[in-house]
């Protein structure tokens, strides 16, 4: 009664092992194929590196644009949008001298 399951388990284990070996052979074959394409791969890698560098540059520019966009200040009194706090403060001081200065403008050197 106890022997039956102990017979099926090693069989299942053996099958698993065979699958593993087959997979290993497959990966070795694909490695060989990759080596044959090596030269072509290097060239395309160089191309990709160049492309990636250009992409990186573009991303940096995007980040700068995003940072600039984040700096858009909206006047709480007249809803005018200004690109930087300096302009905002100057605007606020000249247009709304009687309104209380927004706290984020108090420290700004205009
Ligand atoms: Zn305003």
Short characterization:
The chain has 110 residues and is mainly alpha-helical. The chain has helices spanning 3-36, 38-70, 85-95, 103-106, and strands at 73-74, 81-82.
**Morphology call:** elongated
Distinct ligand kinds: zinc ion
Mean pLDDT: 79
* % residues in beta strands: under 5%
The assembly state of the depicted protein chains is: single chain
Helix count equals 4
- What radius of gyration results from the CA coordinates? 33 Å
First and last CA, distance = 91 Å
- Side-by-side strand order of the widest sheet: 1-2
- What level of helicity do the residues show? over 70%
Q: How would you sum up the major sheet? A: 2 strands, antiparallel
Low-confidence sequence ranges: none
Q: What is the number of strand segments?
A: 2
Order of helices and strands: HHEEHH
**What class do helices, strands and sheet pairing give?**
mainly alpha
Pfam family, one: zf-met
GO molecular function: zinc ion binding
Main location: cytoplasm
Domain Small EDRK-rich factor-like N-terminal: 35-71
Task: Summarize the helices and strands and which ones pair or pack.
Blueprint lengths: L2 H34 L1 H33 L2 E2 L6 E2 L2 H11 L7 H4 L4
Antiparallel strand pairs: 1-2
The structure holds zinc ion.
Give structural attributes.
mainly alpha; 4 helices; elongated; binds zinc ion
Structural write-up:
By secondary structure, this protein is mainly alpha-helical. It has a domain at 71-110. 75% of the residues lie in helices and 4% in strands. The protein has helices at residues 3-36, 38-70, 85-95, 103-106; strands spanning 73-74, 81-82. A two-stranded antiparallel ribbon has the order 1-2. The longest helix has 34 residues, at 3-36. The chain is elongated, with a radius of gyration of 33 Å. The N and C termini lie far apart (91 Å). The mean pLDDT is 79. The chain binds zinc ion (ZN). Zinc ion binds next to helix 3. Residues 35-71 form the Small EDRK-rich factor-like N-terminal domain.
